[in-house]
Amino acid sequence: MSTLTRSLPLLAALLALVLFPLFGSSFYVGLVTRIIIIAIFAMSLDLLIGYTGLVSFGHAAFFGIGGYALAIAFQDASVIHLWQALPLSLFAAALAALVVGWVSIRTSGIYFIMITLALSQMFFYYFFESPRYGGDDGIFLFLKPVLMVGSEDILNLDHENNFYYFALSCLVLGYLFLVMILQAPFGKVIKAIKVNEHRVRALGYSTNGYKLVSFVIAGTLAGLAGFLEGAHTGYINPAYMSWHESGVCIAIVILGGVGTLYGPIVGAFIIVLLQNFLPEFTEHWQLLLGGIVIAVVLFLPRGATSLLPRIRSLIRMEKSISLSQEEKAKGDADG
Amino acid sequence: MADAILQIDRVSKSFGGLIATNNITIEFERGQIHAIIGPNGAGKTTLINLLSGDLLPNDGTILFNGRDITHLPPHKISQLGIGRSYQKTNIFAEFTCFENCWVAAQSRINTSMRFFRPASNLKAVEKRTEKALELCGLSLRRDSRASAMSYGEQRQLEIGMMLATEPELLLLDEPLAGMGSEESLQVIELLRRLAEDHTLILIEHDMDAVFSIADQLTVMVNGRILETGTVGQIRSSQAVQEAYLGVDEETA
């Protein structure tokens, strides 16, 4: 598949997102803003799960820290300067990711999952039990960040559409950034680490350093999403960093398609929309949601986004997919 | 010995109560093919793992070009110029041949902590990758997925990846294992060519191959060195006949 045919659906989706506020009501613009924020969060986790082979079960901690950094520093401010607040959130999330990553990348497999889970729960309980940060009630923010030059507003996130486009820009820039580093020498190394870390080490790479950098980049991007969420809702509480949120994030990545970057964006749309509209049909909507996730994993093991190429190849009457699956099965058996 | 590239001095490694290599001392001369033979369980692969840093010895020292590498991790040893291939094929199964060798070749740039330019811009790495593919005889398979290739080709790729790191000393753990006779001949030919400007340490069960290409032989039995010498010396050694070659013929 050429680069063009592959990016065509992406460009079409981007165009639809750019035009959306012209048609959608402010409720829906707000909803899609939330989806975009979750998409950034899930995309950052895909860097770890899909490209570095690190299944982090504590990714929500960095999302929460991005939000808390904003809320704690600016809860009493008379104006929230974007150029101060955003770097602060990113820095706080990066620092937390550095510490958590430094401890956890020494382990692998189930131990890595457990350590990231445990460390993120420590953050959760710290905020849950800190009255000065609102405890389990969280912190309210009554202002939105603004970007000012002199006394002139350049960008005021108080307007829903402004916020929407700001979040969308973050998503697009985040996506392009990840695509860039994955094509760079760094990306070649982490993708190889995912497949066979032992061999990468034998080839002369200090793999821990690469895993740690990947972890910090992912954590920083999650912090960006948390910053946006805190600014968007004007409210941050410990539940944002609970293991439950980390789990939902993993589900979004898997549902959309691991190791694709755009898959988690699609996954975010699917999950958030289902969370919003399923409850209208039945009070057992969680059951239904679970069923949908299971169905996708069973029938589209490479995620919802593998549906399109699959239909394409069916139309062309190609057998390439079944062949590649046989290859994979054979590869798994050999390995 | 005039010019030793690698000196192993009284190296021991045990796993719990099992002594895998016991007080091993060998000097490997620069530019030679030095084969290590011995029955299964003799400790040959353990010895290679000690040299590549995959295992740490309990005792003894290992000097590479006069430098102590006994306790260095695998990536540092690789960077010093010791490459190794594995007995059990150890490649990136989902990658193409080219990508497999690329990762290996890219390890020789100063740092791969580069984020902003596509890796494909690195022409020196590309050249090294192509050269490694050519040496191991996989140029025509460059875009094939490693997992889809035959076992013999995967073994060739295993060697190709090692070559892409441009090592000075090659540690080859049974490079001919599981290969057909024609593939074996190709690989033996490749090893001969490599020996012109590399030092090779070779573990191999194929005796015909070993006797035809090795300059020096070390025979290991039960974690100990039985004898070291030239092909002629080993062939005529009474101890080796009894301990290894004789047994091999009986069971075969």
How does the major sheet of chain A shape up? 3 strands, mixed
Total number of beta strands of chain B: 10
CATH second-level architecture of the largest domain in chain A: Orthogonal Bundle
CATH architecture of the largest domain in chain B: 3-Layer(aba) Sandwich
CATH topology of the largest domain in chain B: Rossmann fold
Describe the structure.
Chain A is mainly alpha-helical and 335 residues long. Chain A has 13 helices and 5 strands. In chain B, strand 9 (216-221) and strand 10 (224-229) form a beta hairpin. By secondary structure, chain B is an alpha/beta fold. In chain B, the strands form 2 sheets. A 6-stranded mixed β-sheet of chain B has the order 6-7-8-3-9-10, with helices on both faces. Chain B has helices at 44-52, 74-80, 97-106, 123-135, 151-164, 181-195, 207-213, 231-236, 238-251, and strands at 4-15, 18-29, 33-37, 59-64, 67-68, 82-85, 169-173, 199-203, 216-221, 224-229.
SSE inventory with pairings:
The complex is a heterodimer of chains A (335) and B (252).
Chain A: H1 3-23, H2 26-52, H3 60-74, E1 80-81, H4 82-104, H5 110-128, E2 139-140, E3 145-149, E4 152-156, H6 160-183, H7 185-202, H8 207-233, E5 235-236, H9 243-256, H10 262-277, H11 285-299, H12 307-315, H13 320-334
Parallel strand pairs in A: 1-3
Antiparallel strand pairs in A: 2-5, 3-4
Chain B: E1 4-15, E2 18-29, E3 33-37, H1 44-52, E4 59-64, E5 67-68, H2 74-80, E6 82-85, H3 97-106, H4 123-135, H5 151-164, E7 169-173, H6 181-195, E8 199-203, H7 207-213, E9 216-221, E10 224-229, H8 231-236, H9 238-251
Helix pairs in contact in B: 3-4, 3-5, 4-5
What labels describe this entry?
heterodimer; A: 335 residues; mainly alpha; ABC transporter involved in vitamin B12 uptake, BtuC; 2 domains; three-stranded mixed sheet; two-stranded antiparallel ribbon; 13 helices; B: 252 residues; alpha/beta; Rossmann fold; six-stranded mixed sheet; four-stranded antiparallel sheet; 9 helices; 10 strands; 38% helix; 25% strand; globular
